[in-house]
Amino acid sequence: QVQLVESGGGLVQAGGSLRLSCAASGRTFSSYAMAWFRQAPGKEREFVMSISKNGDRTYYADSVKGRFTISRDNAKNTVYLQMNSLKPEDTAVYYCAASQASWLASPSAYKYWGPGIQVTVSS
Questions:
Q1: Residue 10 CA to chain centroid, in angstroms?
Q2: C-alpha to C-alpha distances, 42 to 1, 46, 73, 76, 88, nearest whole angstrom
Q3: Backbone region of residue 87 per phi and psi (left: phi > 0; alpha: psi in -120 to 50; beta: other values)
Q4: Calpha distance 95→46 (Å, rounded)
């Protein structure tokens, strides 16, 4: 069983930055590809970014290209999402997820999920 907990969300003005953190339990963090998803009210869960088990490969949605960066520190069992140049359309609940297989963009590829954390970007 893997437990994930997000932190670092909050309210920020458009153009500002936030860094989300996802802390994972256990010794096997490096066995999982990690990803960030987000979900706005009334919308489907949307892929944001993912990172391979050792951090050497990343995958990203077009909507965040050039603005967001995913990284991981396996020694700290933590994955990060650095969000810059935030836009009101980035407002959503952000979820951290772990996959034993790959860093696919589909939510169905991820077995473990954090409870989510709110990010609100004001105009």
A1: 15
A2: 30, 12, 33, 35, 16
A3: beta
A4: 10
Closest CA to 64 of 13, 17, 22: 17
Residues 6+ apart with CB under 8 A from 75: none
Amino acid at 54: N
Report DSSP letters for 54-118, one per residue: TSS-EEE-GGGTTTEEEEEEGGGTEEEEEE-S--GGG-EEEEEEEESS---SSGGG--EE---EE
What six digits make up the tokens of 66? 């050039």
| pLDDT tens track, the chain, 123 positions | 789 999 999 999 999 999 999 999 977 899 999 999 999 999 999 999 999 999 999 999 999 999 999 999 999 999 999 999 999 999 999 999 999 987 788 999 999 999 999 999 999
Tokens of 58: 């990343």
